[in-house]
């Protein structure tokens, strides 16, 4: 029996699926972040390998029986990045067929074959879609330096900026500002700023649950940030629908990412914005996880038995 590995990697984690050549999932695992723009190519390679070897060990499968792998990683949209990542994985998984694509490619693969739009809301943000003729498009997903509006990174960044400005203006912390300092374990803003300057990816996205909790408790500033976040996510879908001319189509619309499914009221805010963007869309779920989609893409790399 031959086996394949599928990886879905982003700015905070890497999901892995081990699948046999019949399409049966044997095990799943998780590793660290694998976006090379955020953790470097070496760090991304380590996270992918860790997740892969863990999945293999959980299924009690020999690593020699892994014949192909597909890694859909955020940060590999640029051809040079994809080529470099592919070379590194080929060195680690010598003799195996390797494909590297973006995490957005996986998301669209997960949506099936019909016309569809998928909103991704996690560490980063993007929308990908396909029309009835098979034409595909993408909006967003360029990283925090060029946008990622509505993402967990953006929410954390905006919240810290507003809390810090309030402290500088008044000399007092807002309730949310105090909560951020407590949850991050820092005694004051200068210490937190030092951590942010050293590794913003380790701070901003992880503040999203704190903001969400504060909003659920009625904090007005947290709710304002999340309302802005929902509007930004709706704009991504609106722009993509315009590009693919799907504004008035009964297109399938799915959502993916770690920001969603954690709060009923936040999900409702996002859904309201999506309905404005594509009024005739049919809300649905992805047909499979992105990591499973990656494994199925890896199956297509296998030579006929």
Q: Can you give a write-up of this model?
A:
The chain is α/β, with parallel strands linked by helices and 305 residues long. The chain folds into 2 domains: 116 residues, Nucleotidyltransferase, domain 5; 172 residues, 2-Layer Sandwich (Nucleotidyltransferase, domain 5). It is built from 10 helices and 10 strands. A 5-stranded mixed beta sheet has the order 3-2-1-4-5. β6 and β7 form a beta hairpin. It is globular, with a radius of gyration of 20 Å. The mean pLDDT is 93.
What's the helix count? 10
- CATH domain topology of the largest domain: Nucleotidyltransferase, domain 5
Question: Would you count the extended β strands for me?
Answer: 10
Poorly predicted segments: none
Kindly give the count of domains.
Answer: 2
Record the strand order, biggest sheet.
3-2-1-4-5
Helix content: 40-55%
Reading off the top of the CATH hierarchy, the class of the largest domain is best stated as Alpha Beta
**What is the CATH architecture assignment of the largest domain?**
2-Layer Sandwich
* Proportion of strand residues: 15-25%
Q: What separation lies between the terminal Cα atoms?
A: 10 Å
Tertiary shape: globular
Task: Look at the structure and name the CATH superfamily of the largest domain.
Answer: ATPase, nucleotide binding domain
Whole-angstrom Rg: 20 Å
Please describe the biggest sheet, giving its number of strands, its sense, and whether it closes into a barrel.
5 strands, mixed
**Could you say which structural class the secondary elements and strand pairing correspond to?**
alpha/beta
Q: What is the N-to-C succession of helices and strands?
A: EEEHEHEHEEEHHHHHEHEH
**Rounded average pLDDT:** 93
User: Assembly type of the shown chains?
Assistant: single chain
